[in-house]
Amino acid sequence: MTGMFERLNALLDGHIRTQLVASAVRFRIPDHLADGTLTDVELGGLTGIGVPTLRRYMRALEGLGLVEPAGENAYRGTELIELLRRGTGSLYGHALMAGTEYYQAWSELDYALRTGDSAFEHRYGRDLWHHLDGDDDAAVSFARTMRSNTERFLEEILELYDFPDDGVVADLGAGDGTLLAELLVRSPKLRGIAFEQPATIGIARQTMEDRAVADRCEFVAGDFMAEVPRGADIYVIKSVIHNWNDEAALRILRNCRASVGEHGRLLLIERALKIDDALEAAIRDLAMLVLLGGQSRSVGEYEVLLRRAGYAVERTLTAPSGFCLLEARPSWGYFVR
């Protein structure tokens, strides 16, 4: 009984662990410890936290495995905390969102369960996308989260699918432009269209400029619920459709179909629901409900969506991480509703 009590108590204290990690990022402790060991006085000076309180806090971070003692009243970071530093493949942005917007949204889980609607929208009075439009800091944190997710699996995706060396690739919901920029860097004859919301299209432009490929990319700000730009040979939609329920997902896919030419292709990239990892799959699925009113789907469910939207699925590729790539072309028959 004691073991079960402790296990359940640890689950109930999960919110504390989230805030401990988020605060470390907000105070930039992972970055401060990047160059080596710091004393409590040095770290207190950098963070603005009083030394007595800092010692208590660092004891908690040590318990989480983020820091370790390095002599009397001194600390150094572990390999784990390196993942929270600003930079490539980092969870920095996710930690910021997990400690603020995501944290508040999950407190409204009951609402999402009762209604099937977004808890985030209920908590903030606007959906996540409009929230990002009105909050520059949140938009940057979200973009960093998406960049980290893309960077983690980028090589796997590029090895799995043979992207074209020339022509035009449109990235719909391009985020910060990481995927499209990498495609343009690897294929000098390729041109791109980065399609994003007005609030984040500038981030994609900056990424292209940093990678010296902006001259081969058209930047289009818009809403794929209304229309999708024309003129591409292949349309890529990565990690977008799971953000939406079936009705909205079909609307997006049908808008894409209206823009895909006779010989065009759609490449849908999503992390498919894997029933063999039941807890992770359930949490990821509920996260989509809580944050966006969306849902995770199996490969088969994505194939059904594509057919209903008027596509013929030509092939489906699955990566070890669970990402699936569904290549589809317009079906010139009729829409299945």
From TrEMBL:
Q: Which GO terms describe its molecular function?
A: O-methyltransferase activity
Work out whether the entry's keyword set contains S-adenosyl-L-methionine.
yes
Check the record and name the CDD domains matching this protein: AdoMet_MTases (cd02440)
PROSITE patterns noted in UniProt: SAM_OMT_II (PS51683)
Domain O-methyltransferase C-terminal: start-end pairs: 106-311
The GO annotation for biological process reads: methylation
Coiled coil, from the record: none
Does the keyword Transferase belong to this entry? yes
UniProt keyword terms in alphabetical order: Methyltransferase, S-adenosyl-L-methionine, Transferase
**Listed PANTHER family:** O-METHYLTRANSFERASE CICE, PUTATIVE (AFU_ORTHOLOGUE AFUA_4G14580)-RELATED
Q: What is this protein called?
A: O-methyltransferase
Species source reads Actinoallomurus iriomotensis
